[in-house]
Design goal:
Order of helices and strands: HHHHHHHHH
Strand content: under 5%
Structural class: mainly alpha
Helix content: over 70%
Oligomer: single chain
Number of strands: 0
Length: about 240
């Protein structure tokens, strides 16, 4: 029990994704702010840690998960998954959501001015995410793949231009924090993606897609912040010590 209290929430979700639902229920950020211990989030949010522990234990005993155990995957395979599953999802959904939100602003903006704020935040996020993913695909991910290959064939690697993998990882994590904050604002403006009583079908679909986008982004950031990045730093240290 004490071991669980001292684990970070990111570690817990990395070990068993079912625990993510407990943190979501209490609005505890397990992806961008996954480096906090259960004790810390309980204290900060005014929660009873014993209740949290009971809920975590219950969800692990009574629920099933269709999530693979990403914590055991080779890093190059995890990168392939992130690119094909999450990067591709972001690229496909952005133009669809921008079209929906733009239409809502034109049709319902007078009565629901918060839509303009939602559209502005999402458009900003879309641009930043596009650049962010390219930096990962062109700089960070190739180096992690090279480290994995170097481990397999025993070759000595030349240090990358960015010095150490920690440097781009730190930048990516800061950008993750920015997008997490932006979506917290979107969630607040949309009343947690709850359409108003006079919402048309397009309104409801747009909010549903927006919520789905945020949930995918949380999983995406979790895989990187809590699994890929720590393991990449550990791998680099191992290679440098040889």
């Amino acid at each position: 029990m004490n071991d669980t209290i001292e684990k970070t929430v990111g570690q817990m979700v990395a070990e068993d994704y079912r625990t993510a639902q407990v943190f979501k229920n209490h609005k505890i950020d397990f992806c961008c702010k996954g480096n906090r211990t259960l004790q810390e989030v309980a204290d900060k949010n005014g929660l009873d840690k014993e209740v949290l522990l009971q809920e975590l234990d219950e969800v692990q005993r009574n629920s099933q998960t269709d999530q693979p155990d990403f914590n055991t995957w080779p890093l190059d395979l995890l990168i392939d998954y992130i690119e094909k599953k999450h990067h591709r999802y972001v690229e496909e959904r952005i133009p669809i959501l921008k079209q929906y939100l733009n239409k809502l602003c034109h049709v319902h903006g007078n009565k629901h001015p918060e839509l303009f704020g939602i559209f502005e935040h999402f458009t900003g996020s879309a641009g930043e995410l596009a650049m962010h993913m390219k930096k990962e695909e062109l700089v960070l991910f190739p180096w992690i793949r090279k480290m994995v290959a170097g481990t397999a064939d025993g070759k000595t690697l030349e240090p990358p231009q960015f010095g150490t993998v920690h440097n781009p990882i730190q930048m990516m994590m800061e950008e993750h924090d920015n997008e997490g904050e932006r979506f917290r604002k979107i969630a607040a403006l949309s009343s947690d993606y709850t359409p108003p009583s006079d919402a048309c079908n397009t309104y409801r679909v747009a909010f549903s897609l927006l919520q789905e986008f945020e949930e995918d982004l949380h999983r995406h950031i979790h895989l990187e912040n809590n699994i890929l990045f720590p393991k990449a730093e550990t791998l680099e240290k191992k290679l440098l010590s040889n």
